[in-house]
Write a structure and sequence with these properties.
It is built from four helices and two strands. By secondary structure, it is α+β, with helices and mostly antiparallel strands. It has one domain. A hairpin with a 6-residue loop joins strand 1 and strand 2. The two termini are 27 Å apart.
Amino acid sequence: MRSVFGYILAGIGIVGTALASIKELRGIVSFLPQPVISSGSFLIVSLALVGIGIIVAVSDGSGKNKKGEEVPIYDQKGKKVVGYRRLK
């Protein structure tokens, strides 16, 4: 689900970058004022959305679950399990 959100953000950023860069596309979008689209800050925000979207889409979210495999800890005789530890 996180990667879908990242792809949507990147797509919005690409569309915004195209609107800011290609003069023929500026006339298509009528709900945004022309000075907003032609400003440099609109291009910067669009490129930032592309970057954030790519980062969100590529990150797999495994940062919260970086636990290793559990292996048993045996007593000195090697017969009884006294606990478990995680391998890295």
